[in-house]
Each structure stands twice: as C-alpha cells, then as structure tokens.
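From: lab user (bench 3)
To: helpdesk
Subject: output format question, protein + shikimate-3-phosphate

Hello, I'm new to running complex predictions and I'm not sure whether the block I got back is the full result or only part of it. Here's what I submitted:
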Amino acid sequence: MSDQLPKLIFLIGFMGSGKSHEGDLLAAYLGLPFIDLDGWIEDQQGRTISEIFRTEGEDSFRNIETAALQQAAHHLLSQAISGDFAGIISTGGGTPCFHDNMDWMNANGVTVWLNLPVAVLAMRLSKEKSKRPLIADLSDDELHHFIEKKLEERSSYYGKSTITINEVVDPITLTQKLRNA
Ligand code: S3P
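Helpdesk reply: Thanks, we reran it on our side. This is the complete output you should expect:
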C-alpha cells in the first residue's frame, strides 16, 4: 500500500458502536489526524445535530452531512504528505446509508464497520439517548426494537465495508487488519 497515495480510514456503524472512541484511540496509536464527523458538523454549523434535525428536518441534515463528509475528507487529504493513511474520520451512524456516501468512502479510503450485537448497542444507547434525535424520545423497549429494525435496514450499506469488526477491538489489531486490507 505504501507506493500509493495516502488513504483515509472511515469508521462506520450504528450509533453506540464506539466509532468516536475507537477513532480517537486509533489516531493516537498511528499518530494520524482524526475528525469526528458529528463534531465537525456542529462546529461548522454552530448548532447541535439535534437543533439541525429540529429546525430543518432529517433530509436537510443528510445533505449537510454529505457535504461535511467530503469537506472533512478533502481537509485531511490536502494535509497528507506520505505514508499509508492520511487520517481517520468517524462517521455518524446514518452517514453510509444516504446519497452515495458509502461508495464515495470506499472510493476514497478504507471503510471499517464496527458491528456490535443489538443487546450491546441497546445497553450503551439507553444511557446516551438525549443527544441523538432519532432515539431521544424512545423507551428502552422501543429502543431495542428500533435498533433491530434500523440495523437490518442499514446492514446492506454497512456490509459494503472493506473490513468488518465483530467485537470490541484494540488499535493494534485494527492496524494489522488495515495494513492487510
Ligand atoms: C445518526 C447517528 C448520529 C448522528 C445523528 C444521526 C443516525 O451519530 O449523526 O444523530 O442516523 O444513526 P452517532 O452514530 O455518532 O451517534
């Protein structure tokens, strides 16, 4: 891979799968710049994801998200000099499932799906609903069903990823998988 231009690493997966946390750890381990896409959107827009959903609706958010994905990627690529990877972007849970984002990410880097069981996602998300407009008003029972249904719908997008990780993974193991991809 080292004779090619540096690529991006995109972490994808359902809300609560640990994309931001794993991205942060991997970035520190590899010494790469890291962008959390939700945070990038909030900084650029000067308002929270919840506010964007509330005032403009989901369709508008998805347009903003696609533009932000491409801006963040270009930002990292424009700063990259050499090496296998230019940087890491942790995406939002819905990012791969709208517009042609999944194909675009695969054309511009390596996609890594953090695929955790519904029960683990439900347990994690039950404590972190408020900042996530799609689940903020759901009871724990509704949340479990929502995750099952949405995950099934989204799996055809997530399943296009270069690498699938089915357990909590450490940066060393993840790096080995990335270098073999
Ligand atoms: C969403 C996931 C969120 C955020 C938005 C929509 C989704 O990101 O982008 O609330 O559609 O799954 P996280 O996966 O980082 O929570």
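A quick orientation on your result: The beta strands are 7-12, 34-36, 85-90, 109-114, 163-165. Let us know if anything else is unclear.
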